[in-house]
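Posting for a labmate who doesn't have an account.
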Amino acid sequence: MKINELFRLSRILTGVKQYILAESVGITRQAIQRFECGRSTLSRHKLRQIAPILNINPDFLDDQSINPYKGRGLIKMFFHEEAASHMIPEPVNILVTSNDELKFISLLSSFDIRTLTVESLSLFVDPIYAVVVMDKSDNVFLLRRRANTNYIKLDGKLYMAVWSVVETPGNGEKSKSMYFATKKISHDLHKKIKEWSVERTDIEPLFSECDFTRYTEPTEDEAKIIIATRDLNIGSISKIELLILKELREKRVNTDEIIGWIKTLEDKWPTLTLPVLEGRVLQQEYKR
């Protein structure tokens, strides 16, 4: 990601207006606008002034192999609204691609359930209201929908959203380790998140209270299952692959059983929609 793109996206995700950012460093809004669009540049001095306002690590300007974010307090970001109801590429995409280890906690809450519309409601009794993330640089992030009454329609599949942006490492590349947990939050914490008054001291203790499940790249046996699905020539089915891997890991289903079940789908595949197939996986139809 180019420097101007990172600054623009970080400003949008943190909810900072262009004119406020411009005033804080003594330049015009038009200068910020031109920089974000790639039509002009800003001096290194100005960029280093702007970076902390957006929780961007100033050293990232000189070394783009390091973590792009750095914040002493809680780094609060909104989900990219166009994708917040389904897969969530931003800001999760930035965090996953720039870190080899992250801890995610889905914060479950139903305190505002009566205010929700059907479109904003998850399928779960306790839908996800926000997600908190900690990286190896000791940054703590809070991710929430921009509308404070909207929940995140991840349907318990945050790990799918994460792994959908993780590429299989090549030779010499380091694999990624992602850790996931869920936590029902108190009414007080829900209110603080809703009002956007929540602080790092409210969130950081949650990471010591949760039991995390670790997900890594597929093992050799799991890779066989993915190969079996791709032999059907059905294109990208990463959600299904991840769902099968989750079932395999948590329920310890025999690898050959799943591969046999996948092969029975070859003739049926054109008529199977993604939700139907997900349902069949969750119902463990491969156990015969």
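Reply:
Got it, the structure tokens are right above this. The longest strand covers residues 101-108.
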